[in-house]
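Weekly modeling sync, notes
Attendees: S.R. (lead), two postdocs, one rotation student

Agenda item 3: backlog of single-chain predictions. S.R. asked that every request posted to the team notebook include the full sequence so nobody has to chase files. The rotation student volunteered to paste the first one in as an example of the format we agreed on. Action items at the bottom.

Example entry:
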Amino acid sequence: MKDKIIDLNSMGTNIKKYRKQKNLTQEKLALLTDLSVQYIGNIERGNTTASIETIMKICYILEISPNQVLLSATETTSNALINQVLSMLSRKSVSFVKHIIAYINLLDNTTYKN
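Predicted structure, as returned to the notebook:
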């Protein structure tokens, strides 16, 4: 997951969604995973980072894969995007890179946002 970060809120939302699909309360999930109710709540609210072991315990009980919890909770950082662009540009000619710079300047001078 190089250059990726975990969106704790998304991860927690995913865990809560799958917990509810299994008709489990936080209390029951806590009991089955040997974790505290407060810890489960903090994970679901995105207030804490869970260890891999904890995520695996939760996934085992919810009968889901860690991918179902984590993959949709990752977002590419701006540094990762910049590195990707730099890597792509490093293989191009100087002329091509100049055209890209001109295009970026054009976009920067317009109302293009996001």
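Discussion: group reviewed the output briefly. Residues 12 and 44 are 4 Å apart (CA to CA).
Action items: rotation student to repeat for the remaining queue; S.R. to check formatting next week.
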